[in-house]
Each structure stands twice: as C-alpha cells, then as structure tokens.
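Notes, p. 3: input format for complexes.
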Amino acid sequence: MSVEIFGKVNQIIEEIKTASPKAKEEIEQFRIKYLGSKNVLKPLMGEIRNIANEQKKDYGQLVNQAKQVAEAKFQQLKDALESAAEDASAHNIDLTAPGEPIELGSRHPNSIVMNRIIEIFQRMGFAVAEEREIEDDWHNFTAMNTPEDHPARDMQDTYYLKDSTEMLLRTHTSSVQARVMTTTQPPIRIIAPGRVYRNETISARAHCQFHQVEGLYIDEGVSFADLKQTLLHFSKEMYGPNTRIRLRPSYFPFTEPSAEMDISCFVCDSKGCNICKYTGWVEILGCGMVDPQVLENCGIDSKKYSGYAFGMGIERQAILKYKINDIRLLFENDVRFLKQFSSTL
Ligand code: PHE
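Output follows (345 residues plus phenylalanine):
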C-alpha cells in the first residue's frame, strides 16, 4: 500500500513538471487541479494516517515537495504568459495609424534674396566665387587701394584677430576681387556672395555681421555703359520690369568713377511711402569702374584691361522686400519668424 501511494505522488510530481498549459484558461485549470481548494494533492495528504509510522515523515515531505513544484511551475507559467503579452503589444504596430508629422525647414530670407541675385547674374554669365571670411589686411584693404590712414582700417570699424594687425574679419566682399584678380587673368566675370563683419553697435538698423554680393567684370574695353546696363537688367529682373535706376556720384577707394545706385521704389512705384522715405528711390548698391591702380596691385595690365565692380548688401534688400522692421530678427534664428518667408521671390 505505502509503496503504491509514494509512487502515485511521484507520478503527480512528474505530471506537474511536464505539464505545458499555454493559454490563460489552461493555466487556470492547472492551478485549480494542483493548487486549488480541491486539488489532487489534498486527498493524498489525508492518506498520511494510513502510512506506517516510520514512513510518515518521508511521505509528508514528498507531498509537500509536490505542492512546491506545483507552485513554482504555476509562477513560471504565469510569467511566461505575461511576457508573451508584452511582446505582442510591442510588435503590434498599427499600420493604418497616421504618420508622425515631419517638420520641414524653410529658407532664411537672406538665402532667398541671395539665391535670387546669384541666379540672375549666373544667367548673364557670371561665375560664383566664394572666398575666406578671415582675411589679411592686404586683400581687404591694401590691394583695394584703401590708404593706411583710412577710417575703415581703424580698430573701431574692423575686427582684427587677437594680437594681429594683419589678420581680420573681412569688412566687405571686395576682398574677393583681390583674391580672384591675383590668381586669374582676364576675362574675369564673377559674383562673390558671403558674410562680412564690421565693428558696429548692434541696433534695429545695423549689425556687426551681414551679407554682401560682390560683382566683378574685367576684360578689354569694359565701360561704364556696360556697368549701367548690367545693373539695369538686374534691377528689372529682381524688382519687376517697370523698375528704373538712378546712379549718384559717390566715392570708394577702389573704383573711379564711383557711384551709388538707387532703384525706383518697388513698394509705392515712386509715389512716396515710408519704405523710400517719400523720395521715390531706394538705395541698393555701390559700384564703379575698377581703379587702374587696383588692377596693377593685383598684377593685371591696366593699359590693356578695364572693368567694373559693384557690391550690394543682402539684409537691406531682405528687409525692404519683406518689410522687416528689425535687422536683428535675421540673426536670431527664431523658427516662428523664419518660417514666414516663401522661397519664391
Ligand atoms: N565694398 C563696398 C562696400 O562695402 C561696395 C562696393 C563694391 C563699391 C564694389 C564699389 C564696388 O560698401
């Protein structure tokens, strides 16, 4: 009798170990069978009174062991069920759910204006020349005929590199004229877009950094008429076919003669508004015939060649075009401001 009953308990232990319920209901059945209030081990525990005294201890331990095996197995089954549920939810991708929105950036107003200017001049055969922002004194000033005592060279107006009287942040893109003319023989026809720096107090109307586009054309027999016609064509392309231009005599050390160019106000068509300050004209750029001395400084024969140059500020045009009332907004990188501008100009 007692051998038989030991065998029965062992058989149950084996049964528990090999059981493999997976579904929730099957696991519940397992629990009821081995651990529930009417579990199969209970009557076997009751059989202890029929066991011979010297075997009672071993029998009790065996039934207890069966109970522990059942508890451990149940825990294991429950854990497996839970992690299976977690896995399922992790891989449960809803392919019909709407996608995450991707924020698209927008062109900076400076870039829009600059790209438009570049595009217009490229169509007229100008190549883009980009050069360094950290320049030496010679390319920025000396080659460009700017005398030693010119106020532009002053520490007050130019950022010099620490402990250097030679290296500086370029104050205009005219330094690219010198870079190109010293390395290329005419014909030269380039535009040079880029950032420039001046030691200005930052305000709504001025900044210590801004952008310019420089133009340079050197060949045999280039005249002021060529300059004027090129600028007129540019102005009509940029500001509309009815745009008129006006050249006012001016002075730059590197051009002779020099001029400043105004365009007819594109906001009021020269009727008078606060953009043109009721003059009907808006100043856009500086220009002139390249001073023969500048050609010679850069190794170009001024008896054979002549040329014109012009330089225009980008921020100024962006501000006018988009009616921006504070130049600082162009340098703050506030997306709420920047995303208002469309790329088509
Ligand atoms: N470099 C001048 C400026 O920064 C502009 C300019 C360029 C004038 C070329 C004449 C010719 O104001």
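The first helix runs from residue 2 to 18.
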